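hi! just following up on the protien thing from before. the input was this:
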Amino acid sequence: MDGYNHPVLTKRVVHFIMQPLSTLLTVDKTVREPVYLQISNQLMELIKKGTLQAGHRLLSTRELAEQLNIHRKTVVQSYDELLAQGWLESHAGSGTFVATHLPEIKPQLLLKDAINPARTAGFTFKATPHLNKDVVKPQFNLHLDDGFPDARLAPLEELSRAYRSQLLNGNPYLRLGYGDTQGSSWLRQELSSYLNKTRGLKTTPENILIIRGAVMGAYLISTSFLQSGDNVVVTTLSWVGGNMNFMQAGANLIRIKVDEYGMDVDELEQLCKKKTIRMVYVTSHHHYPTTVPLRADRRIQLLRLAEKYGFIVFEDDYDYDFHYQSKPLLPLASADQRGMVLYCGSFTKTVSPAFRVGYMVGSENVIQHLAKLRRIIDRQGDAMLENAMAELLQNGVIQKHLRKSLRLYRERRDVFCELLKNELSDYVQFKVPDGGMAVWTTFDPKVNLVKLAQQASQQLLYISDGVWHHNDDQQANATRLGFASSTPQELQRCIEILSELLKHKQVKSAYLIKQ
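and the predicted 3d structure came back as:
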């Protein structure tokens, strides 16, 4: 009889379930989960919730099978699974019972739980509003993105062959085991040579830490070198990914102006006289998000201030390889004589954001320290991917890809800027960027950029609403419009969509005019 409890098995006061066991179980033969596991998992939950108490006698396998209209062997499998896990115990001649060694659980009402543990934890934790940034998912047919490369141009066949070679050849113990926390020695050797030739650095492999990308670099630096209350200088328009990491470490963000020549270093100097600065975050080659390069005299002054006041210069060189007008200025790190600069780059903009291989360059003792920290959060990167990238650098594949991409991206920049000028000049202002993969575009004050982005998404066109480039004190009504990841034909269609949306100002004034 359902609800019977063997008196020999437990001295506890037993709570009888008030309805037949079979009504508490459901079987769905359309799902992939085997039926016997469905039953065993449901029985386990009834035990956890106290609906079935320790010592409770279950229906026989034949009885439960008949009531659920399933084969008896299925119920036997379910019971055997729970017997093996210790949830049930079997007594010859008496039947199958909920294990008596389980703690007594107060029965819960068979109602919908007030809290869904799949969504909400039972413990508390401190929420951090500065981490609240939506992740853009690749669900759009067209995109004027943040300035991403065109993955269709990536040397995927060469990379696939190199990765396959790394996966299958050589000593499997060494190939598939733990590697150097600092990263592939082969890649660090090739990167050292590449960075010394192209960026004027003076590195050895010991000056390089392989990381996943700039976000990991920002996290490692913030965790290692910032303490709560430290002052970090960023520009008024800046990279939210870096800012979130600095704030997570407890740092105070101090924002200084950026103009057509980059960060205002004179303002920084006045600030240094008043406050102790721990770190300055700078995108010297193409300021993020505005794309303007840091002028040569300001670079010299910034390094001089770092030496004088002892602050770290975190140089994020996110798209050095894409400069169209002339030979680009070398990074700050190339002129660093005192070890004040931590230089960060990645292959995200070279190949694709999905290939998470980047690098940090700094003094040996700093790199060793960062590698120790990396060991406790990520241990190491994908050694086979790192070695595959090393092979492509060694064979010149990456360099060839960059030359091809540079030519195409220059053409796309010219096409896109011409389209902006001819089709949207009544609504936007911009300067043709000397490099990078996006145009910093300022919209007319009457245009509600947030709503424009929402309306564009309905047309399956992604543009950023620009909110995350700004701070509470400065709303520029501007955003980055990336051109590199789209063909000229796709860029034409993107502009057509924006033009149509913007021209409906008279009939949809509530959409375009800020309230």
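The domain at 154-395 is CATH 3.40.640.10 (Aspartate Aminotransferase; domain 2).
The mean pLDDT is 86.
cheers
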